[in-house]
Amino acid sequence: MSHNCFISFKKEDYKYKESILNKLGSERIQGKALDRWIESDDIDYVMQVIRNEYMKNTSVTIFLIGEHSSEKEGTDIYGDKNAFIKRELQATLYDGKGFSRSGLLGVVLPSMESKIYKGNYSCNECGSIHNYVNINDDTVIKEFSANYYLKKDMRCCYTEAGRFCVLVRYSEFMVDPDKYIEMAFNKLEDP
Q1: Do 125 and 187 form a contact (C-beta atoms < 8 A)?
Q2: DSSP assignment, residue 99?
Q3: DSSP for 133-170?
Q4: What would the mean pLDDT of 18-46 be, rounded to a whole number?
Q5: Residues paired with residue 166 on neighbouring β-strands, in sequence order
Q6: 104 and 63 Cβ atoms separated by less than 8 Å
Q7: Which of 80-84, 102-106, 170-174 has the lowest mean pLDDT?
């Protein structure tokens, strides 16, 4: 089953957004990037505006994880450099007043692979070999990391069952994007 997607990205990663758009087709990529701050203290109202005006008819958000899409980006004279991406991901995860949350798929761009995928390690708790995935404020924004690691399995590691977000390398995503989009959508059904 194909799902309509929204792409959350920084302008520096525009070429990757365009490659995904070309791969999936413009009919599958719905909505438009948040381009203005929505003035309201009512978070339900803000989320409704984003979902209605920017993310309409989408069920999965593809978050491009590049060098400029982390908490470490900080602020500039205009405020939080990732404020729009944060709002887009908040709206993706929003579950209320006429909308249910969407699946969230993180696509790690080539420049970030070595910062996120750190190889394997032997676990002192269970003795198994685990993949070390570096998802934190240095690599992504909190809206993603807080929903990537949800609950540990066997007190020692996070498995796919303990995550809400799906994470994939850009190169793997481009081979079979529907596989990963479907995985992200299916997370909506997990308890």
Answers
A1: no
A2: B
A3: E--STTTS-HHHHHHH----BTTTB--GGG-SSEEEEH
A4: 82
A5: 105
A6: yes
A7: 80-84
Instruction: Give the C-alpha separation, 86 to 42, whole Å.
Output: 16
How far apart, in Å, do the first and last CA atoms of the chain sit?
21
For residue 190, which of 157, 155, 166 has the smallest C-alpha distance? 166
| Contact criterion met (CB below 8 Å) for 148 and 163 | yes
- Whole-model pTM: value is 0.88
Q: Rg of the chain's alpha carbons, rounded to an integer? A: 17
Closest CA to 49 of 27, 32, 64: 32
Mean pLDDT of the chain: 84
pLDDT digits (tens, 9 = 90+) for 118-150: 988 887 777 778 788 888 888 998 899 888 877
Place of tokens 């481009």: 174
In contact, 184 and 104? CB cutoff 8 Å: yes
